[in-house]
Amino acid sequence: MNERMKITADAAAMLFLRQGYSKTQISHIAKAVGVSVGTIYLDFSGKKEILNFILASIIDPDFVNHEFERPITNDLFIGIETKIVTLFEDIGTEFSRHLENNAIGYTFGELISDSFDLLAQYAVGCLFIEKNYFDFKYLSDHYREYRKKFFAAMRQYLSIFMDRGDVRQLEDLDLNVMYITETLSWWAMDMRYTSFEISEISLESAKKICIDNITAAYKKQN
């Protein structure tokens, strides 16, 4: 049963990302899964419960393996938006932790690798909020603040690496931070879910491409 719920959640996530939450109906999800609408309602009380199931699985990857009383209702997800906001804060703190000691012992290549892993791990949640801003304004506003903090931390890292000669000098630091962040975001997130043609490139290959090309582009010139 849990496998069917996971398949339903995965199909719904793709629809929420590609056509929007408000435009997605239970019938669309059922068609994508290949089951009847009634089968969906055996597991979930409605579309919002499916969404919250997806978000809960992002917070806790083992969530899908729990035992549930079906159909799942929103009673199971009380406080989930607060948990998502707390997750944003925790992610931001973890991403910035090397700044506490001026990134000593931390390399530009490791920053790119860690950034890729972070974006890939939370791709569905991040993209969902980005694509459905007006439907979920509370989450979107907090996500926007998280994005600002992520950008600021990336900028500080890049500044440190420039100062100590790990990367070449850059004329416009903000634009370069934007370029790096958007490049990582596309390869770690959009490529799998929202690009015009969904790519079959593995995450491992995508990560290697990002690390190889970004580090080469920013390598200090001799």
Automatic annotation (TrEMBL):
Name the UniProt key words of this record, in alphabetical order: DNA-binding
Which residue intervals are the DNA-binding region?
25-44
Q: Where is the HTH tetR-type domain?
A: 2-62
GO molecular function ontology, one term from the record: DNA binding
The record ties this protein, via Pfam families, to: TetR_N
Can you tell which superkingdom this protein's organism belongs to? Bacteria
Name of this chain's protein: TetR family transcriptional regulator
